[in-house]
Amino acid sequence: MKAEADAVAMDVRDHDYVPRVMPHFLAWKEQYFPTESNRLRWMLERKLKMTLMAVIQARLASKGSGYGDDLLGLMLQACFMTEQGEKRDELTLTMDEIIDEYKTFFFAGHETTSHLLTWTMFWLSVYPEWQERLRAEVLRECRKANPTADMLSKLKRDDNGAP
């Protein structure tokens, strides 16, 4: 009987089971085991979630004066409206969904802005004549003050040519 069982039993060393399963196990381990980097990531996620929850709760508590005119305020206002524009008593999204949406917009905007600034600095370094034109225009419009949104909206390219 033991000989029959040995004949039927698969020896994993003779098959490709281990090479196929090991990468999945390692990926699972990297994501769920309490390694030092995972504990740090979990702590930061928890801290960010608590901070955003506090901001959202403060906005919800001040609903008499509106939810604010920024992205979060618009999201909260939309969560309390029906498709016909009537007010609801409860949120249509859960707190976790609101936090996830807010984080998506925030980090996508941050990444887009950082890429824009990086490429702007790169191209200005490649074309120093454009860097000089821009510097002269900023000094003309802003003088020595820190630029404001109104000042930046006045910036126009001096000519229509491209570098």
From TrEMBL:
Single annotated GO MF: heme binding
Coiled coil (UniProt feature): none
Pfam families: p450
Transmembrane segments: none
Keywords for the protein's UniProt record, in alphabetical order: Heme, Iron, Membrane, Metal-binding, Monooxygenase, Oxidoreductase, Transmembrane, Transmembrane helix
GO CC list: membrane
Cellular compartment(s): Membrane
GO biological process entries: lipid metabolic process
Protein family according to the UniProt entry: Belongs to the cytochrome P450 family.
Protein name per its UniProtKB record: Cytochrome P450 709B2
Source lineage: Eukaryota, Viridiplantae, Streptophyta, Embryophyta, Tracheophyta
